[in-house]
Amino acid sequence: MDVYEKIITTPNENETFQPDEVIALDHLQREKGRFKITAQSGNEVRVFLERGNTLKLGQLLKSQCGKTIQVDYAAEPVMRATAKNWPDFVRACYHLGNRHVRIEIGERSLQILPDHVLAELVESFGLDVKECEAVFIPEPGAYAKQGAFAKHATSEKTATHTHHH
């Protein structure tokens, strides 16, 4: 079994590149640093990365013996909710965020993992809810490396203004 331990840079768009394997990962698998999975070729592979990295579409991992594997996103069961207007959409997002629900936000649409209680909540704000299979890319959260907090903390180091609370 090949063990993939290193994230390498993605090839240039103009380069032709053929990875040795491709793995399709759901949102939870993309957040894990260590797991076994069957690649699309049918071969079982093991990923053993430093913790704290979320794998992204097209990213390449390198094995101990020099093979490469490319990350693809897998569809998974989700609830997709769409709003007819912005106020209803904002209220639904607010209440889901208040419950610390993993959420993917689109243009007056959102995706969350299936849950009948949350479906009723979102419908109570006038959104149409449908269950489907789709790629789920939830917002990283306020304290994630690429989230708003990291951007704010970085800008505070170089900013000349101060905040008063």
Structural account:
With 165 residues, this protein is an alpha+beta fold. The protein folds into two domains: 2-72, Sandwich (HSP40/DNAj peptide-binding domain), CATH 2.60.260.20; 75-159, 2-Layer Sandwich (Alpha-Beta Plaits). The chain has helices at 27-31, 86-98, 116-124, 148-158; strands at 2-8, 21-25, 34-38, 44-48, 60-63, 68-73, 76-82, 104-105, 109-112, 128-134. The protein has a six-stranded mixed beta sheet. A hairpin with a 4-residue loop joins strand 5 (60-63) and strand 6. Mean pLDDT is 86; it is low at 147-165.
User: Per CATH, what is the topology of the largest domain?
Assistant: Alpha-Beta Plaits
Strand order of the largest sheet: 2-6-5-1-4-3
Low-confidence stretches: 147-165
Strand content: 25-35%
Q: What structural class results from the helix and strand content?
A: alpha+beta
Let me know the CATH homologous superfamily of the largest domain.
UreE, C-terminal domain
The CATH architecture of the largest domain is 2-Layer Sandwich
Compute the separation of the termini in Å: 55 Å
Chain-averaged pLDDT:
86
List keywords for this structure.
HSP40/DNAj peptide-binding domain, disordered C terminus, 32% strand, 165 residues, Alpha-Beta Plaits, 2 domains
